[in-house]
Amino acid sequence: MASARTRAAESLRAAKEQQLIVPPPRGVRVPKRVRRLLVRGLAPAPLARHASMTDLLAALSRAESAPRRWGLGAAVALGAAAMVAALLWRSSAPRRCTSEHAAASLRGVWEASMEAQLESSFRGTGRAHARETAGRVRGVLERYRDEWTAMHVDSCRATHERGEQSAAMLDLRTRCLGQRREALRAVVAQLSRATDGEIVDHAVQAALGLPAVAECADTAALDAVVPLPAGTEQRAAVI
Known about the structure:
Layout: H1 4-17, H2 32-41, H3 53-64, H4 72-91, H5 93-96, H6 99-105, H7 113-124, H8 130-160, H9 167-192, H10 197-201, H11 203-208, H12 219-222, H13 232-238
């Protein structure tokens, strides 16, 4: 027989998936900006939620410190809602520690549907080596995507499944991976809209110049009070 805690977690998970949000108690007024944050934190789709629980709580903290008096009832409601959000986040953790979830985070960044657009843009510049270069760039970006996905899954499992990494470090690594994802997005956007042959000439170099995903496993650097600069040579110069 399932324990009370298990049944409660299953009920919360079902409520989240169906977006059944319980309204605050009668007489309690919760500011709209706080409600919007909580509704976003409870969104079923991973991409619709905050990047991490730390980001959600930080946003709630900023909203709470806004120049407005809520009253004790609203403060209690906020605290309870934040606890529910945290529980829901933890209960969905196993689902997030998968390659499918990681791949979903890269939708619209680099995926198979963009390959044809990239090659078409390159060939449109008239460069003789456009098609060959597009193939080389595609290979570099696919390796980067696979490395990013593997790192995302491993970091998630290190905290939620293996218990060898703190939640704070998971947040730091997730933020690092988010920066790499945005760097990838920027490079893909630039290359996919190539109208100048110069872009094609330097496309492989641009793809290879993406910040290393491996740096998101450097826990010492991520946990430093003053983050170390990216790149092995730059770090060696500082140290």
